[in-house]
Amino acid sequence: MKTLIDPDLALAPGLAAIRAQFSVPTGFSPEVLAAAEAAAARPLSEHADRTDMPFVTLDPASSTDLDQAFTIERSGNDLVLRYAIADVAWFVDDGGAIDIEAWKRGTTLYLPDGKASLYPPVLSEKAASLLPKGPRAAVIFTVRVGPDGTSLLDGAERAVIRNRAKLAYDSVQAADLPPDFAAFSVRMAEAEARRGASRVDPPQQEVEAVAGGGYRLTFAPRLASEDSNAALSLATNLAVATALQEHHTGLFRVMAGPDDRAVARLRQMARGLGLTWPDALALTAFEPTLDAADPAQAAFMVALRRAGSGASYMPYHERVVPWHAAMAATYAHATAPLRRLADRYVVQAALAIANGQAVPDVVTQAFETLPPVMARADAIGGRIDRAVIDLAEAVMLHGREGEVFPAVIVDADDRGAHIQLRDLAVLASAKVTGRPGDVVDVRLVKADVEARTLGFEAA
Question: Which residues, at least 6 apart from 188, have a Cβ–Cβ distance to it below 8 Å?
């Protein structure tokens, strides 16, 4: 899971070790910083003036790398989203120092104590970020969403915008948002249900101090504002993907769904967690009923996220329909160019297509070479995420050796079992026997903070 909140810095020593282990960048070379300073001062000479449009942003309160701003209006029965995406390509020269460094990194890496940005902060958190102060460079995607939730790319342009308000998930009010913001989210959700999409967004994990000493790891439910905001990116990414596919170009996000064996394990786990999943109900129909505010259901959502084969990137190929099982659609990443290298090129391709222009050769070539670069970056990010969670679990349980915990077997083989504690947000290996879905009691025998490992045995 990419987000873990650690307000009391209980993880600080362990996080330093993780940064060293995975060689997390600590900054940028003088050459890259100098290029970024020069790029930040570049005049916006090819951008239309759209500062009269009432754009706002909606993000975590502390975010400064703002990729997206939006406004929504009605057009007959359609809802028209104008989605302004940070125009990173305007500031980054192909083959220049900033570009070369971005290809080495691939993505921004996030840890509870800070991030290692894809681009220097003078760009990612200032000149290229869609912050409220001053006019900002953007590519505005006009996305038309019909009553059935189908989204189409209706135009794209380079423009100068002004962000009227930096809104935060935990404090935003309905009056702060466009009048049709909620209706837009409903349309997208209903369309997902009709497609049979199985997109799952598990809650954040938090490290909380416990009275009397120690820590615990809990799930913090997603806010409704987060889900509604995600609908804007979803609509845009779907519309861009359709446009790219129709023009025989692009880079797509693809993912296979859980196989029959994985679904069977999930059913057993659901029974062990006490969840009601009727035999006749498909996984795609069961997922929308899950409530992240319930610890057992939140734990199941995490297991579900891990049950698939994982997403990857694929360039356009003739007679191949790129498919993302969780979205139940052809899908692309276009809305986070400050944080993902691939998005910069997808935005450029969509901008060209929308204006009847040829996709630049450098973009087409990048589509072929980006998949392994993004795969490596995603893998490193995933390993860091797992290491952070392992650290949090060890910190939380250190000092509780000898205690017995109820658990559910998630998976098992001849080497032991993988368990989910029923009352804590912990997944771990254990020396127990049984089948997936069995409820067992396990005793904690080790919680090694330095090694980030836990040891459980049958109680």
Answer: 145, 149, 151, 231, 234, 235
- Residue at 82: amino acid letter: R
Q: What separation in angstroms does the CA of 207 have from each of 4, 226, 323?
A: 7, 21, 36
- The letter for the amino acid at 172 is V
Q: What are phi and psi of 451, to 5 degrees?
A: -85, -10
| Contact criterion met (CB below 8 Å) for 420 and 407 | yes
Structure token digits, residue 239: 């519309």
Mean pLDDT of 160-187: 96
Q: How far is CA 95 from the centre of its chain?
A: 28
3-state secondary structure of 124: helix
pLDDT tens-digit map of 223-236: 889 989 999 999 99
Question: Distance between CA atoms of 109 and 377, rounded to whole angstroms?
Answer: 9
Domains and CATH numbers, the chain: 4-257+309-397 (no CATH), 260-276+297-307+402-459 (2.40.50.140)
E strand map for 122-162: 136-145, 151-161
Q: How far from 173 is each of 106, 224, 225, 310, 423, CA to CA, in Å?
A: 35, 11, 9, 35, 33
Q: Which long-range contacts (CB under 8 A, 24 or more apart) does 124-127 make?
A: 124/65, 124/338, 125/64, 125/65, 126/40, 127/39, 127/40, 127/41, 127/91
Tell me the pLDDT band of 308, cut-offs 50, 70 and 90.
low
Asked whether the whole model's pTM tops 0.70, one would answer yes
Q: Report d(CA 291, CA 339) in Å as an integer.
A: 29
389: enclosing H helix or E strand:
helix 361-397
Distance of CA 347 to the CA centre of its chain: 18
Instruction: Please tell me whether residue 216 adopts helix, strand or coil conformation.
Output: strand
